[in-house]
Design a protein that fits this description.
GO terms for molecular function: cysteine-type deubiquitinase activity. The chain is built from six helices and seven strands. By secondary structure, the chain is an alpha+beta fold. 31% of the residues are buried.
């Protein structure tokens, strides 16, 4: 599904220079938490050697941050970035436990026109789940509901959870759809078109 969201306000930063990693991080968390300064500081921690440039960012200071910067950055939000093995089955992902996804795609192509690594410059985008409003939370007052409240709540959240493509090169958030739709979207990106993906999860969900 490629429908632009108009139902609710969703945080979305648009592209500036080569700061797609910065935009992807902020779009993922729905706020301007990270800045050029904070990501540059991560670069310095990763490579404290003073020289002609830092291997984790653009020589000119225009962004182009690499995956190492993103993986350290999400730790500041008490999360971990797990590189997804494309040999794995996407349907095994527990979407109720992910903060979102950060995809790495060719810079000059839309999602329908990927190139294979390492050709071309790459671009970071985030995919974020949002629970839509408008329906009341299921009642847990009955004895049957009290016997399995967590399952009832999980089923409710799944029914209301929608995923959005928050590519900073788009004018705004683009609705992907429900769990089934995002799995299809990611499967095409990874298996057919050569994308790479980080799964962002809370630290307390890792290795559970």
């Amino acid at each position: 599904m490629d429908t632009r969201s108009s139902q609710q306000k969703i945080y979305h930063e648009v592209q500036h220079r080569q700061f797609c990693a910065l935009h992807a991080l902020n779009n993922l968390y729905g706020e301007s938490f990270f800045t050029k300064k904070s990501l540059d500081e991560i670069c310095e921690r990763l490579d404290p050697q003073k020289g002609w440039g830092n291997p984790h960012r653009s020589f000119f200071g225009w962004g182009n941050y690499d995956v190492n910067v993103i993986m350290v950055a999400v730790q500041e939000k008490n999360c971990e970035a797990i590189w997804f093995d494309k040999r794995s089955d996407l349907s095994n992902l527990d979407l109720s436990e992910v903060v979102g996804f950060i995809l790495n795609i060719p810079n000059d192509y839309a999602l329908g026109s990927f190139l294979k690594l390492p050709l071309g410059r790459r671009h970071w985008i985030s995919i974020r789940p949002i629970v839509t409003s408008g329906s009341p939370v299921p009642s847990q007052s009955s004895q049957s509901a009290q016997s399995a409240p967590s399952k009832a709540m999980d089923a409710f959240r799944e029914s209301k959870r929608m995923f959005y493509n928050l590519d900073s090169k788009s004018k705004g958030p683009v609705l992907i759809g429900n769990d089934s739709a995002v799995i299809s979207f990611l499967r095409e990106a990874l298996n057919s078109k050569g994308g790479e993906m980080l799964v962002i999860v809370p630290k307390d969900k890792v290795n559970r």
